[in-house]
Amino acid sequence: MVLTGCTKCIKYMLFFFNFIFWLAGGVILGVALWLRHDSQTSNLLILQFEGQQAPGTFYVSVYILIAVGAVMMLVGFLGCYGAIQESQCLLGTFFFFLVILFACEVAAAMWGFMNKDTISKELTNFYDAAYIKAVDISGSPSKDSAIKVLDVFHTTLDCCGKGDDNALFKQVASTLCPRKSPEDFLKSQSCHSKLIELFSEKLYLIGLAALVVAVIMIFEMIFTMVLCCGIRNNPGVY
């Protein structure tokens, strides 16, 4: 028996939202892959200094996004197919996975909010550790390695130093930032500021994508419940 009236309208609205959900999954997967292979973050996060790898907390969130995007595409397809087939079984399975995804997204959002400054702080500390060795005038064994690490930061972020123009920094500025002239030192931003700016922009993008997906999920859960009730009340529809 074919659904009629408002229930039929909800069926096609659910299909439409599921299609948008499937597309959103593809967009999130694409954005996550872009964030993973973005030259700025990749150049910084592959660095090693004194046997320590640059902190990779940022990649944890990116890998989660990749998994979420892939699952969203699968679940979106399941929802589209369930709506068209008017199958309570498929719609019930879809609703179950949707609730799980929504709960995971809320948990990830809470974790991200509590750790929003962690990524930039970890990389700032990593930069500072190399900076201290690089400006060491006593000739530290790891000085050359530290200068190479700083060179990657300065080239990638177009910055120089920590923002403190003390006498020691001015002595070694030409070594730490060989591509900049003395006039450029006054204009360039500190690497601390650039790191905060870089990851704030990327986390804002992730947060915006998560908010849009959460709104779509809420509408889908409502439409799925209404459609399931409509199918149940129509004899001959399974």
Automatic annotation (TrEMBL):
Membrane protein topology class: Multi-pass membrane protein
Membrane-crossing residue ranges in chain numbering: 12-35, 56-84, 90-113, 203-227
UniProt xrefs under Gene3D superfamilies: Tetraspanin
Subcellular localization: Membrane
Record bears the keyword Protein biosynthesis: no
GO cellular component, one term: plasma membrane
Keyword Transmembrane found: yes
CDD domains assigned to the protein according to its UniProt record, in alphabetical order: CD81_like_LEL
Chief location of this protein within or outside the cell: membrane
Protein keywords: Disulfide bond, Membrane, Transmembrane, Transmembrane helix
Disulfide bonds: 159-191, 160-177
Family classification: Belongs to the tetraspanin (TM4SF) family.
Protein name per Swiss-Prot or TrEMBL: Tetraspanin
Source species: Gasterosteus aculeatus aculeatus
Lineage, opening ranks: Eukaryota, Metazoa, Chordata, Craniata, Vertebrata
